[in-house]
């Protein structure tokens, strides 16, 4: 499958005629000079991640090359009675041929060039693209994923991004064995990465994929359009053990720089593994182009979900603002790779297929319920959102991004969903609770609410 410009063919074998070589190279030069907006440098100029100016402002292209039931429930609904709960079981149930057809149809339609046209119009400058290890290599016996297909669609999307001046961060979202046991790693259940019988083997299997990514995006053809790569999404440090995760990160960074050279190649992003930033004190962020990533949500923590709207705004401004400031001073460049305006966990399949929600008291064995009469019945129907609720959602978004811009910037999760509007940037803009231009807003928003971001403490009583 070809993109607008397939760089792999710009070599002596494909350029039979000098005219076409020159034409293609001119097209690349023109594309390199494109900027998505006035505050972002064009692709032929470096983006200053080290100093955090300008800010990364982006969306995730989630649920695309790694499936997530809550983003695209229609892919899973026909097979739930057959025990399908993630990409692993979906591919296993369908078999290789049917799985490949379903996935290719999805890859071709979920993200198109129009996706990047819209992202550019919204004042954004980055996208974060999750991929699984199966995008790049062969599988071991028993792994049912469809291999070596999604990478082609990624490359086509990168060319669309180039055309519209958008920078692309590609992140390994699914590692061999699953680094967290959640469906967005590819497989629900037991963590078999740095954990269990095959944990050490799977952790080592992961390293060559990272080297492959780093070497590929170090090519001059991709250096400026894909200048950042995520090492691994959300390794469960709280279950695996923080020391084990940090030690593996050290191996990963060494492997990446073996492929690229010290301080060369793409910026490498370490997800914090749900650990304190102090755990990463042994890394040299500035000298080796490293960035740390936190994913900050309200709805997965019962104490935060229970706060009043006023207290949630205050928490975002002060606690998350303080986190971004402290991490930047302590570690170095710090980004927030995922966040949302959702303050409940009612999105269909958000916690997993048939798992339930904390909000209405149906989540697993938890005794929590937001209130005695709380229900998820209307939470995913944007037509029921009142003007006051939309005002709060917009305030919450602005409070969060001001806090996150105390660091290097942010990526909203997600760019769109099939049926969960609070998780869709595009739906939020259309519905009026997210801004039409992320760069066109007043500064000092938290201060205007009375919660300046430089205050470290939060009164959670509301």
UniProtKB/TrEMBL annotation:
Pfam families in the record: Cellulase
GO cellular component: cell surface; extracellular region; plasma membrane
Keyword line: Cell membrane, Cell wall biogenesis/degradation, Glycoprotein, Glycosidase, Hydrolase, Membrane, Signal-anchor, Transmembrane, Transmembrane helix
A biological-process GO annotation: glucan catabolic process
Molecular functions per Gene Ontology: glucan exo-1,3-beta-glucosidase activity
Predominant location: membrane
Residue ranges crossing the lipid bilayer per the database entry: 20-39
Domain annotation Glycoside hydrolase family: ranges: 111-341
Catalytic activity: Successive hydrolysis of beta-D-glucose units from the non-reducing ends of (1->3)-beta-D-glucans, releasing alpha-glucose
Source taxon at top rank: Eukaryota
Enzyme Commission number, as recorded: 3.2.1.58
Record's subcellular location: Cell membrane
Membrane topology: Single-pass type II membrane protein
Family the entry assigns: Belongs to the glycosyl hydrolase 5 (cellulase A) family.
General function of this protein: Glucosidase involved in the degradation of cellulosic biomass. Active on lichenan.
The name this protein goes by in its record: glucan 1,3-beta-glucosidase
């Amino acid at each position: 499958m070809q993109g607008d410009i397939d760089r792999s063919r710009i070599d002596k074998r494909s350029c039979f005629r000098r005219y076409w070589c020159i034409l293609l190279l001119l097209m690349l030069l023109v594309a390199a000079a494109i900027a998505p907006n006035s505050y972002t440098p064009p692709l032929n100029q470096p983006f200053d991640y080290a100093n955090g100016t300008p800010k990364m402002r982006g969306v995730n292209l989630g649920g695309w090359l790694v499936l997530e039931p809550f983003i695209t429930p229609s892919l899973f609904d026909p097979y739930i009675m057959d025990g399908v709960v993630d990409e692993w079981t979906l591919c296993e149930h369908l078999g290789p041929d049917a799985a490949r057809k379903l996935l290719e149809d999805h890859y071709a339609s979920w993200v198109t060039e129009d996706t990047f046209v819209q992202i550019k119009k919204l004042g954004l400058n980055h996208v974060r693209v999750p991929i699984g290890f199966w995008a790049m290599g062969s599988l071991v016996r028993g792994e049912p994923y469809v291999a070596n297909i999604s990478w082609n669609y990624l490359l086509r999307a990168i060319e669309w991004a180039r055309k519209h001046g958008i920078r692309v961060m590609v992140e390994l979202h699914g590692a061999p064995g699953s680094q967290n046991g959640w469906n967005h790693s590819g497989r629900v259940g037991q963590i078999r990465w740095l954990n269990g019988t095959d944990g050490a083997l799977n952790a080592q299997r992961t390293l060559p994929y990272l080297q492959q990514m780093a070497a590929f995006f170090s090519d001059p053809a991709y250096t400026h359009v894909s200048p950042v790569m995520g090492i691994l999404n959300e390794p469960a440090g709280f279950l695996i053990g923080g020391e084990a995760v940090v030690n593996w990160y050290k191996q990963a960074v060494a492997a990446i720089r073996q492929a690229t050279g010290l301080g060369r190649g793409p910026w490498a992003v370490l997800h914090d593994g749900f650990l304190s930033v102090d755990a990463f004190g042994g890394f040299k962020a500035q000298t080796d182009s490293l960035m740390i990533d936190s994913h900050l949500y309200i709805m997965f923590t019962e104490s935060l979900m229970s706060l009043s709207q006023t207290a949630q705004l205050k928490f975002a401004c002060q606690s998350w603002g303080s986190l971004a400031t402290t991490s930047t001073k302590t570690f170095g460049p710090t980004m927030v790779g995922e966040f949302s305006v959702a303050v409940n966990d009612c999105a269909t399949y958000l916690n997993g297929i048939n798992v339930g929600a904390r909000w209405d008291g149906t989540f697993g064995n938890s005794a929590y319920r937001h209130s005695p009469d709380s229900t998820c019945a209307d939470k995913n129907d944007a037509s029921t959102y009142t003007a006051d609720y939309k005002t709060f959602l917009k305030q919450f978004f602005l409070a969060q991004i001001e806090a996150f811009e105390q660091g290097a910037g942010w990526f909203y999760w997600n760019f769109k969903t099939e049926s969960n509007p609070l998780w869709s940037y595009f739906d939020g803009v259309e519905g009026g609770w997210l801004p039409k231009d992320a760069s066109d807003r007043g500064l000092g928003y938290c201060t205007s609410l009375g919660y300046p971001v430089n205050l470290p403490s939060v009164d959670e009583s509301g």
